[in-house]
Amino acid sequence: MSEAVHSDYQGAKIGMWLFLFTELMLFGGLFLLYSAYRMLHPEEFHHASQELNAVIGVANTLVLLTSSLFIAMALTAVQQGRHEAGGRWAALCAGLGGLFLVNKGFEWAAKFHHGIYPGSSLVKAMPPGEGLFFGLYFTMTGLHALHVLIGVILLAVVALLVKRGRVRQGDCVLLENSGLYWHLVDVIWIFLLPLFYLAA
Amino acid sequence: MNDMEHGQGHIVEAAILLKVWGALLALTGLLVGASLVSPTLAVAAMLTLTPIKAWLVLYYFMHIKYEGPLLRGMVLIALSVLVIFIGMMFLDLAFR
After folding, report:
1. Cα distance from A109 to chain B (closest Cα, Å)?
2. What are residue A171's DSSP bridge partners?
3. Could you give the CA distance from residue B46 to residue B52 in angstroms, rounded to a whole number?
4. What whole-number distance in Å separates Cα of residue B23 and Cα of residue B16?
5. Any CB–CB contact under 8 A between B23 and chain A?
6. Which of A93, A109, B51, B90 is the most buried (most CB within 10 A)?
């Protein structure tokens, strides 16, 4: 019986990593596009990135890095049998993910207000390189925000399962795999910050 | 290895997690500082500090430091494929 538990745990984790590799290639392809177009239009990318709010980008970085710490703390706590603390860390992590989305909402709303959105007349009138920059900006941060939204829902469910004792010491691969997903979302943002917000 | 028999992985001490978080914040500070100095320094910081930050998350938060050779090998292969893709694209663009 203990053998079966053993292989389930390893299998579940390897399955999660295989999924994360497909995510890596999905975002990797977009990073590839970004790099190619930045090489072809360096001045336009530099100029367009000055439009972005670096303060909100850095603030959201601090939020995500801290949320990653929280979910790692949640796993450590549950593994050590401190379930109440574990559930609390996971819920706090989901809360920080929500805060990230609120900030992102304000950021995008300000861009829309200034007439910068995919296909807007202002973006169409820009030099091609700047239009590409904003196209990539909305695609990449938008796809990332979708991942954050899924992560927030996932972590809220996991926090509830920890609270109810369904995810517990010795049987917490769901929390571990959710944490792996959340950390990957954090790693992608680590790359998005300098590429878009600090490029000016 | 003993941890794995119980259906859960290696336990990373909270103190280590806190140190890694501190290092991530410090590196972010350096990255932002460099971007304010000059565009050249900003690109240099992006190409060095960003992979270090990603490595810290992968190694400690995602427990790669404590995994066996199978998972470590899988991650290494996936990342190598991505690096080869990016390298091939730059070779193509640079020698047109």
Report:
1. 24
2. A168
3. 10
4. 11
5. no
6. A93
Q: Running DSSP on this structure, what letter comes out for residue B64?
A: G
Q: Residue B9 in contact with residue B3, Cβ under 8 Å?
A: yes
Write the residue in B8, B18, B82 that is nearest to A79 by C-beta: B8
Amino acid at B49: L
Domains of chain A, earliest start first: 2-197 (1.20.120.80)
Q: How many C-beta atoms lie closer than 10 Å to residue A96's C-beta? A: 21
Which chain A residues are Cβ-neighbours of B60 within 8 angstroms? 72
Q: Which residue of B has its CA nearest to A74?
A: B14
**Closest Cβ opposite residue A170 in set B6, B35, B54:** B6
Cα of A163 to nearest chain B Cα, Å? 18
Residue A7: the pLDDT is: 53
Which residue of B35, B75, B80 to mutate against A (max A Cβ within 10 Å)?
A: B35
The CA distance from A141 to the nearest CA of chain B, in Å, is: 17
Q: What is this model's ipTM?
A: 0.92
Predicted local distance difference test score (pLDDT) of residue B16: 97
Q: pLDDT per residue over B51-74, tens digit each?
A: 999 999 999 999 999 999 999 999
Distance from the Cα of A79 to chain B's closest Cα (Å) equals: 7
Cβ–Cβ under 8 Å, residues B19 and B12? no
Pairs from B76-82 (Cβ < 8 Å, separation ≥ 24): B78/A21, B78/A24, B78/A25, B79/A24, B81/A25, B82/A24, B82/A25, B82/A28
User: For the segment A62-114, what is each residue's pLDDT rounded down to a tens digit?
Assistant: 999 999 999 999 999 999 999 999 999 999 999 999 999 999 999 999 999 99
Helix (H/G/I), strand (E/B), else coil: B31: helix
List the single range of B7-11, B17-21, B54-58 with lowest mean pLDDT: B7-11
Q: Does B91 touch chain A (CB under 8 A)?
A: no
